Amino acid sequence: xxxxxxxxxxxxxxxxxxxxxxxxxxxxxxxxxxxxxxxxxxxxxxxxxxxxxxxxxxxxxxxxxxxxxxxxxxxxxxxxxxxxxxxxxxxxxxxxxxxxxxxxxxxxxxxxxxxxxxxxxxxxxxxxxxxxxxxxxxxxxxxxxxxxxxxxxxxxxxxxxxxxxxxxxxxxxxxxxxxxxxxxxxxxxxxxxxxxxxxxxxxxxxxxxxxxxxxxxxxxxxxxxxxxxxxxxxxxxxxxxxxxxxxxxxxxxxxxxxxxxxxxxxxxxxxxxxxxxxxxxxxxxxxxxxxxxxxxxxxxxxxxxxxx
Length: 308
Ligand SMILES: [Cu+2]
Description:
By secondary structure, the chain is mainly beta. It has 2 domains: 26-143, Cupredoxins -  blue copper proteins (Immunoglobulin-like); 154-298, Sandwich (Immunoglobulin-like), CATH 2.60.40. 10% of the residues lie in helices and 40% in strands. The strands form 4 sheets. A 6-stranded mixed beta sheet has the order 10-9-12-17-14-15. A 5-stranded mixed beta sheet has the order 11-19-18-13-16. It has a 4-stranded mixed beta sheet with strand order 2-1-4-6. Strand 14 (229-234) and strand 15 (241-245) form a beta hairpin.
């Protein structure tokens, strides 16, 4: 075959089959377990928190279907507790990869990212209710190798959890439900002391919310007040799609992906529609407006998935 025929055939192949998918790679992720004080409301109240890298939620891990995730956990020698990592995106041996390590120890394990989606991760060391109740969790996003979904204009991560007066036992009524570790963190409407930081998008933009429910105990009834989920992807897998959904239940230890499009300027209040959960702190405001400041323009883009 002459050269020009080969080029023409290659061009046809690309047109028919699309560009070649990205090569599988190894994604190296390192985290430290950090036992620290964490301010869980806008009034300055603090709790002893167990965290990955000092924040609630921990860092967003991101890889593509087919990649290998190589994860290293370091348990600081000054910590009091053993800690572990349980990735819901992994299929491994619970007694090996997910086993806890003592203060001063480091451990590395790998797993192939076989299913696309959004998955919860958490410390699985005992007592597990305490490690999750004190904030040791986050999300891992496995992007599909070939994404059949409409492209998102902005992406945000929200993780719901309950904070108990006594996280060691979870006994008695809990104090507050929080999104991303702080009561009414993104809701200056219900808490004038909130920083004023909210989720931001333009009308018509497709906003993709990666939502996990850390629990430890309560189910989330995830709902955008004054909006409708355009699409819900169960576990974030493009194959598990539902459209025009008002409220979607996300149990403890689960995560799903939610697409939201507002046709108008204004706002929605993203809540767990359990009233105890919403009105004790589980509300995040998203503001839709056409004119964004330079800082707002960057929110939900290029890796800025967690609003400060
Ligand atoms: Cu832990």
